[in-house]
Amino acid sequence: MVVVGRVARPHGNRGRVIVNPETDFLEQRFQKGGKLRARRCHETRELQIADVRLQSGRPVIGFEGIETIDDAENLVDMELRIPETALSELPPGAYYQHELVGCGVTTLGGQLVGMVAAVRGVHGAYRLVVMASVGEEIDVPLVDTICVQIDLSERAIVIDPPNGLLELNHR
Questions:
Q1: Cα 88 to Cα 103: distance, rounded to the nearest angstrom
Q2: pLDDT tens figures, 1-38
Q3: Residue ranges of the domains in the chain?
Q4: In CATH, which of 3.40.190.10, 2.160.10.10, 3.10.320.10, 2.30.30.240 is domain 97-168?
Q5: Which residues pair with 116 in a beta bridge?
Q6: What's the CATH number of domain 2-86, 3.40.50.2300, 3.90.1150.10, 1.10.10.920, 2.40.30.60?
């Protein structure tokens, strides 16, 4: 299952929720009649979308059987997931974020940088959050000129960082 969004908060008093999307395909992932698997810790439930609209780039969703603000509050912080088999094939050179998480990152010279813990950012301004071997985060822009090789089958990313990038973005 792949996360496509997280319930942020209730919206209004009729059971609607605002979702923080984690997908570039809003209209495809969040459409009337669509089914999502909601998960929080060990709690899982299937939800069917009754209605949806976009507000400021975020979906406002009504689910079947979620009728009150109390019902909606019970969904807050739940991950909304779909089966990985429901994902569309991407063009060459494009990746789903979950495919990059867990990949090892090394430089062209073979220096181990760390492992991708997350991908953050928005449309065209993504960055890899790499956990360094010392337990600190390093931000690496996800651009072709820096991430020169991505091999998902080997779970490996080779980067060619400009001088000072790794030190500058070390947190």
A1: 21
A2: 778 888 999 998 889 999 988 776 778 888 899 999 98
A3: 2-86, 97-168
A4: 2.30.30.240
A5: 130
A6: 2.40.30.60
What's the pTM value of the predicted model, to 2 decimals? Answer: 0.65
DSSP assignment of the chain equals -EEEEEEEEEETTTTEEEEEE--S-HHHHS-TT-EEEEEETTEEEEEEEEEEEEETTEEEEEETT--SHHHHHTTTT-EEEE-GGGSPPPPTT---HHHHTT-EEEETT--EEEEEEEEE-STT--EEEEEETTS-EEEEE--TTTEEEEETTTTEEEE-PPTTHHHHTB-
In this predicted model, which residue has the larger pLDDT, 147 or 43? Answer: 147
Residue 104 zone, left/alpha/beta (φ > 0; ψ -120 to 50; rest): beta
152 alpha-carbon distance from chain centroid:
17
For residue 137, pLDDT beyond 70: yes
